[in-house]
């Protein structure tokens, strides 16, 4: 991958190389931690694209590259979708960035961004769907975004976070996941965890359901309130927090007994996950609306087996109803 | 239901009663035709709402009513979701209709519609997910929409259509479905079938996949190029076409043999169905963005068991690959 990104990127070489080291380490280390627990291994596919040419498998001096890894049908993990992406491009006709970083249609009068701006984006994401419904679903994604050469104030930022979606609620798991992320945040600023915890609850809301996707974690976007080097260190620490935050929960729950009813409930929870991704997730909407990303790579985040059911509200007093209560009214875990 | 809608509607009483008769007959007759083939029956739930109050089950002098029916886990039909809806309301703050009927955010400068317009909408929809993968998925929905009292030119219209989504392609099934709908269209205008067939192909496109949802049928929206009485007769004929267009296909295919691999492919096809509904369907986006509809009712269209899989492209030369080819390049069936 280093070779690909080296061809891809322009200046500043130093920063882009550092970014690659951080995201690549997260990519490799997290895949390794997952494979250690499972009987299956990841299958990898690299997609590259030159300007307006279609996506091809392989490496042909691209300006966009996706490295996808998928682990499917494992004993512990039913599906893990992983992407490592680096894109150097120009916004397609009719789309632009606002200075906040939001992607908008360029013909609305209120747009204040740059039309046809060139940009650079890189990051890594994991969506982990365990087989056992007692193991929570997890998502982690960190990314860097830059407009032009990134030298204008506000024309670069970091984004991302990590969040947990339990199918059955174990309070101690939520507390552990938040504790590890708070410790990392506190190393850099006491304001970070409260802000990013609230940001996570606000972002992973499914408005039409009046529910959050899960018990949260941290999430931030357009983060550029310090120097790029300081924030790179912060994001590096975040990427390293994911394994100790999540893997102990997998080990603790993966061999617990469960019923077909528990499994069905997991499939319903995954349905909400799909609803969030397809109606609200910024990365997915960017992908769908810009037409600039490789669809197969973007849809690598989707769960395997999923269900919808009319009248899926659980009986009051049940474990499932307790989860819904927490999803409707996000808690402070620490 | 007549009683509910009678309370709900204002003038012109005559038209609204006629609309109700058409949509109610479709609702009842299609449910009956489905129940005749299955060992399960529909469960019905009525939701009503008064202005800003929350949704409640029952009948309490509402200005919005949903009658939902769901048949789940049947021998022939794995899930059928049905809605009958009548809503009399005002657009929520920040949303308006364009004169074309499109729902848009009201604060964009280019909006030419009425802010906070009152409207009336009624219609019936069916989404039918068979158990046997050889039986195609079907969707039918017809609706009437009116802004204000509907007397201004262009302030009322009909919309809807019927379309078929095969999991395995039987050309004669697609031809039969199109033939029945063309015959109904031709009774009213020779221009209707070509326009509405093309409209259906254009509407049920999943842009990020470069595929259509199925083999189409007919679809129209903002139809008001004749008198309301003439178009009511046309729509009535369309509602009556659905049973002869679809039910013979169910009877022909429901007892065919299939493998677990066929069933898995059905779940992947349903995944595309979900992608279309959540990213592109107008009714769903109206529901999600306006916050004005009962979420449970709107999500009654979702399939039961669904799958996503990384690298889900079928082997070339397979039956599954043949279907993909037709989805990528919609055909003229007649």
Question: What topology emerges from the helices and strands here?
Answer:
The structure is a homodimer of 334-residue chains.
Chain A: H1 2-8, H2 13-37, E1 43-49, E2 56-57, E3 64-72, E4 77-90, E5 95-97, E6 103-105, E7 114-115, E8 118-130, E9 137-147, E10 156-165, H3 171-188, H4 192-203, E11 205-206, E12 211-212, E13 216-223, H5 228-253, H6 260-279, H7 282-290, H8 295-298, E14 305-307, H9 319-328
Antiparallel strand pairs in A: 1-2, 1-3, 3-4, 4-8, 5-6, 5-7, 8-9, 9-10, 10-13, 11-12
Helix pairs in contact in A: 2-5, 3-4, 3-5
In short:
Two copies of one chain form a homodimer. With about 325 residues, chain A is an alpha+beta fold.
Structure description:
- Two copies of one chain form a homodimer.
- Chain A is an alpha+beta fold and 334 residues long.
- The first copy, chain A, has one domain (2-328): Coproporphyrinogen III oxidase, aerobic (oxygen-dependent coproporphyrinogen oxidase, 3-Layer(aba) Sandwich), CATH 3.40.1500.10.
- Chain A is 39% helix and 27% strand.
- Chain A has nine helices and 14 strands.
- An eight-stranded antiparallel sheet of chain A has the order 2-1-3-4-8-9-10-13. A three-stranded antiparallel sheet of chain A has the order 6-5-7, with no helix packed on it. In chain A, strands 11-12 form a two-stranded antiparallel sheet.
- In chain A, a hairpin with a 5-residue loop joins strand 5 and strand 6.
- In chain A, helix 3 crosses helix 4 (192-203) and helix 3 packs antiparallel against helix 5.
- The longest helix of chain A has 26 residues, at 228-253.
- Chain A is globular.
- The two termini of chain A are 39 Å apart.
- The relative contact order of chain A is 0.14.
- The model of chain A is unreliable at 106-113 (pLDDT under 50).
- Chains A and B meet through strand 3, helix 6, helix 8 and strand 14 of A and strand 3, helix 6, helix 8 and strand 14 of B.
- Strand 14 (305-307) of chain A pairs antiparallel with strand 14 of chain B.
């Amino acid at each position: 991958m280093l070779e690909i990104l080296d061809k891809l990127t322009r200046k500043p070489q130093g920063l882009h190389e550092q970014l690659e080291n951080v995201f690549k380490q997260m990519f490799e280390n997290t895949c390794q931690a997952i494979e250690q627990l499972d009987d299956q291994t990841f299958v990898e596919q690299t997609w590259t694209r030159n300007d307006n040419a279609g996506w091809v498998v392989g490496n042909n001096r691209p300006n966009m590259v996706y490295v996808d890894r998928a682990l499917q049908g494992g004993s512990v993990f039913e599906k893990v979708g992983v992407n490592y992406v680096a894109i150097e491009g120009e916004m397609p006709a009719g789309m632009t960035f606002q200075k906040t970083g939001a992607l908008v249609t360029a013909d609305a009068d209120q747009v204040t961004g740059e039309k046809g701006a060139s940009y650079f984006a890189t990051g890594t994401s994991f969506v982990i769907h365990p087989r056992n419904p007692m193991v929570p679903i997890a998502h982690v994604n960190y990314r860097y975004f830059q407009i032009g050469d990134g030298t204008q104030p506000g024309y670069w930022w970091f984004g991302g976070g990590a969040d947990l979606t339990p199918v059955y609620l174990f309070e101690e798991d939520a507390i552990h996941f938040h504790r590890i992320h708070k410790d990392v945040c506190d190393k850099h600023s006491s304001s970070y965890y409260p802000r990013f915890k609230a940001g996570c609850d606000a972002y992973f809301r499914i408005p039409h359901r009046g529910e959050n996707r899960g018990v949260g974690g941290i999430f931030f976007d357009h983060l550029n309130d310090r120097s790029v080097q300081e924030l790179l260190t912060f994001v590096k620490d975040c990427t390293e927090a994911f394994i100790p935050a999540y893997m102990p929960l997998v080990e603790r729950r993966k061999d617990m007994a469960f019923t077909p009813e528990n499994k069905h409930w997991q499939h319903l929870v995954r349905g909400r996950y799909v609803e969030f991704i397809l109606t609200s997730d910024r990365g997915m909407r960017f992908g769908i609306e810009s037409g600039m990303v490789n669809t197969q790579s973007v849809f690598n985040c989707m769960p395997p087996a999923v269900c919808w059911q009319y009248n899926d509200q659980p009986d009051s007093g049940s474990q499932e109803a307790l989860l819904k209560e927490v999803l409707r009214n996000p808690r402070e875990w620490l």
